[in-house]
Amino acid sequence: MLVVGAPESLRGLESLQYVSGLWLYESGLADFSWLPALAEIGASMVARRNANLTAEALESFAASRVRSGALVSLTDAVPKEPPDPDAEAVVCGQPSDLVIAPYTSVAGCTRFRGSIHLSDTTAGALEPLSSLVHIDGSLTLFRNHTDDFTALRNLRRVGAKFQMRLLQGPGLDGFDALAEVGELRLLSSGELTSLDWLPALTRVRESALVMTAPPCLWRTSNLFFRAWTSGARPR
């Protein structure tokens, strides 16, 4: 068994022709030129977190040397840092900004640093919001004359408060992608009967509140809120 952990380079193995196992952990090796004579790996080849060895290099080496039926478990490279969500984002506004109709000032933005207040609006007026993915501040829906919010179909996160007051109808259309909010507030929305219109919501980071709602919504919201605030949507 040859176990290699964390070296940048190796010498002295030029004549090695057989090993029962080859295990590579967190090495800086970029290729297998340090094993020029190795012809067979008898029982296992395992690779984990090798920053400079690609999947193609590992698989090619294993395919030509590991005995048929032996264990092969390969993971290429050290996991990279997750991509910066703002790297390709179009970021607009300042934290103190509050946008009230018209909404043209955020047209084309994918991230808005301020807050947005939708009051007495109609579906057509919301189209400038269609590019939004992330609102750092709050999103408030107040006394709207529509249940069609499909212009917000790309919205995934509200950093602060998502507040709905005096909603009309049993639910809203358009929030299918919304997965996370800071706070959730449902106030004086007597016609709202369920929370099924928030199918992707999995996390409410701080708190959730329902006031002046039908009894059926009270019963279901308690279950949903417990799950949301723990980070997992109920099944």
Automatic annotation (TrEMBL):
Q: What is the first-listed, main subcellular location in coarse terms?
A: secreted
InterPro entries xrefs? CWI-Assembly_Regulator, Rcpt_L-dom_sf
Gene Ontology cellular component? cell envelope
Q: Which domain of life is it from?
A: Bacteria
Q: Which Gene3D superfamilies match?
A: Receptor L-domain
| KW Protease (keyword) present | no
Localisation per UniProt entry: Secreted, Cell wall
Q: Which residues form a coiled coil?
A: none
Keywords on this record? Cell wall, Glycoprotein, Secreted, Signal
Q: What is this protein called?
A: Receptor L-domain domain-containing protein
